[in-house]
Each structure stands twice: as structure tokens, then as C-alpha cells.
Task: structure prediction
Amino acid sequence: MDLHHNLFYSYRGPIPDEGARERQLENNVTKALVNTLRLGGESVWRPFLVELGVAEAAQAEFLLQRSDLPSGPASLKKQRVLLGISSTPSNSPHAPTSDEIYASVPDAWIYGDGFAVLVESKVMGGFVEGQMHSHIARLRANGNASPSVDLKTWRDIHRFFQALRCQLSGVSAFLVDQFIEYLEYSELSGFTGFRREHFDYFLTHDDEEARHWVKSQVEDLAQRLQKCLLAIDSFYESWDMGTLYQSASYCWVAFGPANGGYRKKTHQSIAMSSDGVRVFVNAELKPAADRIKQVLRQKPESVRAALHDIHKTEPFDLVLEERIQKQASIYDYTPKMRLHSSLITDDTVGGPAWTAFVDTVLTLPLPYVRIERLLKPSTLLDASSSSDDAAIEIIAEAMRRNHGLVQMLNM
Result:
């Protein structure tokens, strides 16, 4: 994976602070949008203008970082639109109390006979109210009515161009493909479904900017999965993501009580690695392990029945390790047992295997118990070819099936 093969992606270089990095990305992504529209031709810019409510444009011109139009004030155009694009949804700005125009310079213009679109873009957070008031005042000067305001997110822009792509060919299609990819690599599109690069990164993991991209993808995936889980139980009130070091072979996210409370409970986790996405039910710290011991003492066959129900849909591994504390928050792990779910549920040999598992859990001072299911890249990539929602649903459904067991082990 090399982000710099993308036409629009650029080396950021040694930037002194995050504010400067943000401004550079803001300028570059606006330039990429304008160049995609301008060089892509009418088959690209016309649908974009129609999306903004500008349906009768005979032609379109484009400018970057100019206070106003070279043909005269934009306020004299019959149709005027303030297009705001940000990383997060924003509320429309209130109308300014005067027509006083401040020093803020628009990021871009799209204009032609009878219309002008002023573009203000943000890659972090929302819009500055004073800046938006200045843009509105610029567009409504000379006593004209206020312009229409269209606020979008970069995710909206990404989805617009994805939908447009199937109607294009040649250079236009190439430019739109590159712009779609650029939004994804710049962490502006959110999770848009699984790509081969998500998994291949963990084989090479030698590119810092690719690491940032994978991290942002997993974060957005986690947010969307947490919403799915919260819909079934308030237990999943938060999520926590492990640090993605450059040398890491996987990236994990845990779901459950906030502020690290999930560690003291049996909870659910996912981990992305080169061979797919693993879905876990796991228990880490001693309070969670002690609760599992109690449940297994009182009703081991109920736990086995819950595992049997999960196996009916899709097989999994039941894993037991022993945790031995070396230092504060640092443990050694010793493998003890790994049972395929078909063995646990088999009436002939499953009984002795299950009994051995329960006895070992109850004997170990600090057992680490988990069920583990691997979702292969091919499955997730196939689902992603339909939609990002379809890929997320595969993981979410596996976690929903696990929820009954999570509840039982937390009793």
C-alpha cells in the first residue's frame, strides 16, 4: 500500500504543529475537489452543481483562494450558494446582522453566467460563525436577499462521487476514482467498507501515513459498531481502541462500560489483522474471571447450551489461557486449551472436553477465557462490494449472537 501513488495525495513533510498540518490538508483537499470538477469536464461539474440546486448553468469556471470573482461581485449573480463542507455535520449559520464583510477569504469559487457558489471547507470540526457570516454578507451585499446555504460533510461528498462514478468513463472516471481514493486516504470519508489494504497493512506496517489511515478507519468502524450494539443493550455504552503502534500485527477495539469498566466485565472485542477481523467474547481482569468461575460452578450446562446456540450459526474457538502478572498491567500468557465449538457441542466427546475446560477454569488463579471467531477478508470484501453497511452488518450480527453469553457470564 502506497498512498502517494494517488494523483492528489502529497507528502506532508515535517510540519511543526497539528494546526499547520490541518491547514495544509484543508487547502489540498479543496484544490483536489476543484481540479476534479474542472478537469473532469461537464459530466462531472454539472451533476455536482445540480446537487447544489444550480440546474441551469451553461458553463462553469473555478477559482481558489480569491476574495471575489474577476467578473464582478458575486452578490450580483442571480443565484448564489454558500457551500460549506466539513468533517462533521454542522448547523446552518444564523443570518448576520449587517453586511459588513470581514477579511476571511473563501476557499474556492464555482461560478458562471447567473450563478456563484462560494466554497468554505473544514477538515477538522465545524465552521467558524464569524467566517460564515462574512461569506453570507459577501453574497448578499447591495441589498440582495441572503444566499442559499448548503452544508455537507466530506463523507457526503465522497458518497456523491461514488454514485456519480458509474456514469463516467475515460479521464473523468479516472479523476473521480482518484478523488474518491484521496478522500479515503485523507481520513475524510470515514469507513467506506473493507479494502485489501486494510489487511495488507499488517503485513508491511512500515508507512506512518498508512498507519494513520488504518487507525482512522478502525475508529470510524468502531463508532458505527458501537451504535449497533447500543441499540440492543445499554451495556455497550462506549468503546476503547488499543494503541496502533507501527510494528503492531493487529488493532483491537473493546465494547462495553465506559472509562475502562469493560475490563472488569465479560465484554466483546474485535481485532483487525492481516488474516481478517476476529470477533471475541473475552474476560480480562480478575473481577470478570471470578464472575465466570461463579457462573460455571452454578450452571455449567447453561453456559454450554449458550455456546451451542452460537455454534449453530457459525463455528468458533473456545480459548483458555493463564494470565501471570509480571508487573503492573503487564502479564504473561500461557496457553492451556483451545477447543473448536463442534467439539464442545458434540454429544459423544463433548462432555469430557467441556468438563475438562470447566475444571481447568476453576483451578487456575487467573484464567483468561475468550470465544474467538474469524471473519475472513474474502467475506468482508465481498460484502463491501455491495455497501459499507453490509460489511458492518456481518460483524454486528456476530456480536449480537454473542450478547446472550455476555449477559450470562456477567450475572
